[in-house]
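Box 4.2: Ligand-aware structure prediction
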Amino acid sequence: MADADPSLDSEALHRKYLEERDKRLKVAGRSKYFALEGSLAERFDKDIWAPGDGTRDPVVREFEAVVVGGGFGGMLAAGNLRKHGIAAEDMCIVERGADFGGTWYWNRYPGLSCDTEAYCYLPLLEETGYVPKEKYAKGPELFEHSQRLGRHYGLYDKALFQTRVIDGVWDEETLRWIVTTDRGDELRARFLLVCAGATNRPKLPGIPGVEEFAGHSFHSMRWDYGYTGGGPEGNLTGLADKRVGIIGTGCTAIQCVPPVGASAKELFVFQRTPSPVNERANRPTDPEWAASLQPGWQLVRMENFLNVISGVPEPVDLVNDGWTRSLKGARGVFTADKSKMKSKQQLDADDFAHMERVRARVDSIVTNPATADALKPWYGVLCKRPTFHDEYLQTFNRTNVTLVDTQGAGVERITPRGVIAGGKEYPLDCIIYSTGFDVSSGLAAGLGFVPKGVGGLTLLDRLAREFSTLHGMLISGFPNMFTIGFSQGTLATTRTYDLTVQGEHAAKIIEYCRARGIERMEVRPEGEAAWQAEMADKRVDHQGYFEECTPGLLNLEGRGGQVYDFYYGAGPVAYRRQIEGWFANRLEQDLVFGPPEG
Ligand code: NDP
């Protein structure tokens, strides 16, 4: 962020932000979503990428480790297990999709790209010797990298794809997890690693009439190239004679609107809240720069990026992109040292100045003044995930593209002919729901099963009774189980950083147990209590800030609260230091080994 602009009327901006938020709050009831079950699941949640139905004989076997989830979380956990002594044939990844990749397996929409820098985001670049093609990797390259990791660590052979875990039960007699699946498998595991990810299911808005539409419709997470033609690079020839509607203007829509706009006869983009669209400036990787990198460079770069965007002083901004320019100097959502935070006035002034530049960018690109006005975000920099694109705003200058701004109200109804918004019907051939991922249906929906620990206690009941973990990874009553990417852990903008750090931590604890012949390991309640105290101590209170934001994921859809309360407030880099320090100094104090006491 550059310095604040003294000419800005911060009182007026503040009032405007509250007015815009209140428009959304008035129609808060319309934030509902349909559960993807029955015919809706068949239509919107089916695995359209799988080559066949995955029929195979059930596997009945014992493994050292069973990993639930084959996205980057599961792969990094499994890769770390390999590095820490478990052979590929002694572990099994169970994955719903027909390949590894998770997010990058399911999402294949045109224009798909990772909005954080590839040199930070793509994990294990040094180990695999891979150099990303561009500063920001596109979908196919991301998916290919997950396949590369699968090959590198020899994970394909024992992986069970197109398979859902339906139960995981701790057996105190044999000290094993018994994992059963919808393919009839019975896997006995000494260690269970739950890495199911939080964004693995499409979210369908609860707009009345979704099932009545007589044209074609699909969710952006299951892009139907059979209908649109073309591929991830665009050239969607099947849309040349079609009137298409895209519902939603979040991170996904920002990326898929340009290729659809370039291909469709007509495109209508239905907007409830505009996203902030910053400059992207992608560029090919400079081979000389890549060759000059020294061993250990990737961790240094990742942590430099995370520090810069959290306001932790760094002598140089290595990534130097839209993220770091947007968030440098902003209220760090995570703050390693609360005493060094800037004053509220200074933070507000920086925030207003940055968002003014985002709004000015809209004016400098979009030629129709009414459309430009509607595309301007009126909220603070931390209220919504920033987006980065150099063609999205430009797409609204096309004569075949119309922005339908619903003034915070959202789409009212789907009819057999099309979409009703603002009381007007828009007849369409195709509706694309770019309405995000289901992160709010709860743990069971996200995992697909509910682990049952000591005495058959379900994880849901345990967490309802007491929501406490150690590092977001170990839960008392659930021996030999690790949760990765879960609450009370860490949340980095470069999510693969968290998954690498947690995967390694789990693998080190498992290695420790195996080296000593320890069959059963469980966290003591005192260990969890110490982590709860540390979480409370490091919590950064942004409550007032998020209350003034337009409803969204980060302020729990305006219900009060902040999503960051579920994660370690000192930030991801401090989290890594914490768990490494714990491993060196407190492991034996906080874990209990051997059969249950008493
Ligand atoms: P989002 O949840 O960000 O956006 C959903 C969109 O649907 C919003 O614009 C929302 O409006 C809109 N919407 C919901 N209901 C209605 C309705 N009834 N009428 C009109 N509009 C409606 O989903 P995305 O798929 O865009 O992104 C999900 C997450 O995926 C992101 O938060 C990000 O973490 C991740 N992502 C990451 C990328 C990366 O590069 N790393 C790329 C793409 C996605 P409103 O804003 O008003 O709620």
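In the box above, the bound molecule is NDP. The chain has a mean pLDDT of 92.
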